[in-house]
Design goal:
The complex is a heterodimer. Chain A is mostly beta strands. Chain A is built from no helices and twelve strands. In chain A, strand 7 and strand 8 form a beta hairpin. Chain A is globular. Chain B is mainly β. Helices cover about 0% and strands about 45% of the residues of chain B. Chain B has no helices and eleven strands. In chain B, strands 2, 4, 5, 6, 9, 10 and 11 form a seven-stranded mixed sheet that branches. In chain B, strands 1-3-8-7 form a four-stranded antiparallel sheet, with no helix packed on it. In chain B, strand 7 and strand 8 form a beta hairpin. Chain B is globular, with a radius of gyration of 13 Å. Chain B starts with a strand and ends with a strand. The chains are: A mainly beta, B mainly beta. At the A-B interface, strand 6, strand 10 and strand 11 of A face strand 5 of B.
Chain lengths: ~110, ~120
């Protein structure tokens, strides 16, 4: 079956540091890939997505590239802010959404 | 704006009791999804509706769980004979019509209902 594996957290960074959260997936066919974010006390929000190989999704300074050859969709941001502190979920969709376990990001001033 | 709403936000019940969780999707969204998120885990798919019918209920863990959407809008997730292991946050999401039977439209999530079974 479909599965998503993402790095365990928490990831602790200082403001303006570079962020990478790794995500790899297993799926049949050609799924769409997503990153969702859950800010403290709020619901899940779509951060970015990519629907086919080599697509790059981007939003709010975050980027992720759909790498079919490595079955990966790593999330990156060049300079994190305190307000980026949240839990980030990698997900794939073939018929329904399958989520990873989430990675908590803590950014300190 | 009118996003997905869920009630109650918190529900505490005793083992063996029956609970109902409600989801109000975004107006005009024909697809509705239920997920369960246990502590430290990502959301796990339970069931999805296209209109009034359950198009895929493969994620329901057992027959104690049931969901309805009688008029194609509001949905209720029903759990019978609750167990402590049912404690989790139950998330609802909605999206525009699913094209070709697959989820090709963005799902918008509600804030969830935190269920605690004592």
């Amino acid at each position: 079956g479909d599965s998503v594996t993402q790095m365990e957290g928490p990831v602790t960074l200082s403001e303006e540091a570079f962020l990478t959260i790794n995500c790899t997936y297993t799926a049949t066919g050609y799924p769409s890939l997503f990153w969702y974010v859950q800010y403290p006390g709020e619901g899940l929000q779509l951060l970015l997505k990519a629907t086919k190989a080599d697509d790059k999704g981007s939003n709010k300074g975050f980027e992720a590239t759909y790498r079919k050859e490595t079955t990966s969709f790593h999330l990156e941001k060049g300079s994190v802010q305190v307000s980026d502190s949240a839990v980030y979920f990698c997900a794939l969709r073939s018929s329904t959404l399958t989520f990873g376990k989430g990675t908590m990001l803590l950014v300190s001033p | 704006g009118a996003g997905v709403s869920q009630t109650p936000s918190n529900k505490v019940t005793e083992k063996g009791k029956y609970v109902e969780l409600r989801c109000d999707p975004i107006s005009g969204h024909t697809a509705l999804y239920w997920y369960r998120q246990s502590l430290g885990q990502g959301p796990e798919f339970l069931i999805y509706f296209q209109g009034t019918g359950a198009a895929d209920d493969s994620g329901l863990p057992n027959d104690r769980f049931f969901a309805v959407r009688p008029e194609g809008s509001v949905s209720t997730l029903k759990i019978q004979r609750t167990e402590r292991g049912d404690s989790a946050v139950y998330l609802c999401a909605s999206s525009l019509m699913v094209a070709g039977g697959r989820g090709t439209n963005e799902q918008f999530f509600g804030p969830g209902t935190r269920l605690t079974v004592l």
